[in-house]
Design brief:
Elements (H helix, E strand, L loop, with lengths): L7 E7 L9 E8 L4 E10 L7 E11 L2 E13 L2 E6 L5 E3 L8 E11 L6 E8 L2 E8 L1 E4 L2 E4 L5 E2 L1 H4 L2 H14 L1 E4 L1
Parallel strand pairs: 11-14
Antiparallel strand pairs: 1-2, 2-3, 3-4, 4-5, 6-8, 7-8, 8-9, 9-10, 10-13, 11-12
């Protein structure tokens, strides 16, 4: 295999704790035979008023140092605990059709709750500036019992029109949307 065909993937996690709500930066950089990809996601405290909390997610992906896509989400004025937790194990680069056309996949949990309550899981794929999303409720497993995971998983129009990607993401849904406590 030629060196130019090898995929180089490096993960850099800076001050990020996926098991708890934390501010920090998640960064992923890789080079494939056509480009350098650079993804940075930042979770930061937002402005709070009185007894409320807020948290923000900002970031995006660059292709050869040019902005390819952006992401922005938030929980604002939450009277309980505002949380956005990126799942680093969901972050992957996939060439579904084996034609050197890669999708960047990532997911995170977003919630405003007190205690251990299921949040909303957002699972995204990006390819050539186009966003694909799958959303649903988190499943929490603890002490042999299960909570959440109710309702249907909802795909956006872009994902519904991309059957190989839809099947791939749905196949991984249980893994990326489940939080287990021992």
């Amino acid at each position: 295999m030629k060196a130019s065909n090898k995929l180089i993937l490096a993960l850099i996690i800076i001050n990020f704790f996926p098991a708890i709500s934390a501010t920090g930066v998640f960064k992923n950089v890789w080079i494939d035979r056509s480009a350098q990809h650079d993804v940075t996601l930042s979770v930061m405290d937002g402005e709070s008023e009185g007894e409320t909390s807020s948290i923000l997610l900002k970031g995006g992906g660059n292709l050869n140092s040019k902005r390819d896509w952006v992401i922005s989400d938030s929980v604002k004025n939450c009277p309980q605990d505002a949380d956005i937790s990126i799942y680093p194990n969901s972050f992957e680069l996939v060439d579904l059709l084996k034609n050197n056309d890669y999708y960047v996949l990532l997911s995170y949990r977003i919630s405003c709750s007190g205690g251990v309550d299921p949040g909303e899981v957002k699972y995204f794929a990006y390819n050539n500036g186009k966003k694909y999303s799958l959303r649903g409720q988190e499943t929490i497993k603890a002490d042999g019992s299960k909570m959440g995971g109710e309702g249907n998983v909802i795909a956006d129009e872009n994902l519904n029109n991309n059957l190989p990607l839809l099947n791939y993401m749905k196949g991984k849904w249980d893994l990326i949307s489940t939080t287990a406590f021992n």
